[in-house]
Structure formats: C-alpha cells, structure tokens
Design goal:
Layout: E1 9-12, H1 13-23, H2 26-37, H3 43-55, E2 63-66, H4 72-85, E3 92-96, H5 99-107, E4 109-111, E5 118-120, H6 147-161, H7 163-171, E6 174-178, H8 183-193
Parallel strand pairs: 1-2, 3-6
Antiparallel strand pairs: 4-5
Helix pairs in contact: 1-2, 3-4, 5-6
Bound molecules: adenosine monophosphate.
C-alpha cells in the first residue's frame, strides 16, 4: 500500500485475533474455538477487524498485512477496503518454506506473553532458557502450536489459501521469496521484494 516514509506498519491477523481472545471480546470468544482447532475463523469476522483497523488510519502509511488475506473471499473484501481507502496493493509476498521446516519452526516456537517478543528454541534462543531477554517473563508455547493442530493448519492452508497464489499471480503482484535461512536474510529478501 502507499509507501510514505519507507517504513512498514506490521499488522498480524493472528496477533489481532489472539489479543481479542485474551480480552474476551465478542469476536475473540467466537474466534477461540476455530483457532484452537487450527481452522480459519469466519471471513466476515477477520475482514471486519482488518477493515476497522484500516479505516482508523489517518494519513499516508505502508501496511504490511501478515496472515491476511487467507481466502479468496478475504482477498475480495481487501480489494473493496483498499478501494474505499484510496490505497494501493503494491505486492503480495509468498514466503516459500517446505512443510518439514515449517513444522520444526512451529514446534520450537516460543513467545513472551508480556511483551510479545518471539523466539525459537534453537534458531532464536533466549539468553536464559525459557525466559524473555527483554522483560524476564517466562516464555510460553502457543496453544495452536501442538503437532495435531499444526497438521490441520497446513491442510487448511493448502485447501483455502493456496488458491490465492493463482489469484495474485494473475494480477502480477505476487512476489515469491525464499523463506529459509537466517532471519535477517529473509527480512532483507522481503524488503527487496516490496516496492
Ligand atoms: P497465525 O498467527 O497467522 O498463525 O494465525 C493463527 C490462527 O488465527 C489461524 O490458525 C487462524 O485460526 C486464525 N487466523 C489468523 N489469520 C486469519 C485469517 N486471515 N483468516 C482466518 N483465520 C485467521
């Protein structure tokens, strides 16, 4: 979307939903069961959250939407929202990673429930095992990072999100980025891929 100062505002649909679950808002209560099972929450629910967020932005801004859209319906709603805001979709980044690597990353993923900083037990370990470097809080594993839910999330991705590759590919906005290797290199590749 419209680049102003070269910085991105990162918006993760998963983070928005986890925050709503934590605060027990109506949307959070509805989303909770879907998330625990590794299913997508209803399109209308997440589309409204993203739409409200975008409507609340004043002035130029570059948004990096992470995890949204995940279905064709969401992609269509995003088009409408972008049109209403007078914005522009500049690129869609597909982070390309084999399933076996994804499963390993998810199995080792840990997060700080207080400040939100993310870790991986071997790839991005905290200085003290199980403790957040930034705020000293005990790290946790996400409820939906267990092996059964992860397999379901991969199946849901293939069934409902993979069609977006063709959808955005046909428009010429899709950028396929190698999502393997050190984190800073992946971040740099994403930066290069986005105009
Ligand atoms: P993530 O943090 O992106 O891995 O998302 C965690 C969970 O939140 C997913 O497994 C879904 O249950 C839900 N979720 C996140 N983004 C979306 C979305 N765009 N559409 C539907 N469900 C979503």
């Amino acid at each position: 979307m419209v680049a102003s100062d070269g910085t991105f505002r990162h918006v993760s649909s998963g983070d928005l939903l986890r925050d709503a679950v934590k605060r027990q808002t109506a949307a959070g209560v509805e989303a909770d069961g879907y998330m625990k099972r590794g299913e997508l929450v209803p399109d209308v629910l997440i589309a409204k959250m993203i739409g409200d967020l975008m409507a609340g932005i004043s002035g130029p801004c570059t948004l990096l939407l992470d995890g949204f859209p995940r279905t064709l319906v969401q992609a269509e709603v995003l088009d409408e929202t972008i049109g209403r805001c007078g914005a522009e979709l500049s690129a869609v980044v597909l982070l390309d990673v084999e399933d076996v690597i994804l499963v390993d990353r998810i199995a080792g993923r840990r997060g700080c429930p207080k400040c939100g900083k993310g870790y991986h037990v071997t790839n991005i370990p905290p200085r003290v095992k199980g403790i957040c470097d930034a705020c000293g809080t005990e790290l946790i594993t996400r409820k939906d990072d267990n092996p059964e839910t992860v397999q379901n999330r991969l199946a849901v991705y293939k069934a409902q999100t993979v069609p977006l590759i063709e959808f955005y590919g046909a428009r010429g906005v899709l950028r396929k980025v190698d999502g393997t290797g050190p984190l800073d290199e992946i971040v740099e590749r994403v930066r290069q891929a986005v105009p």
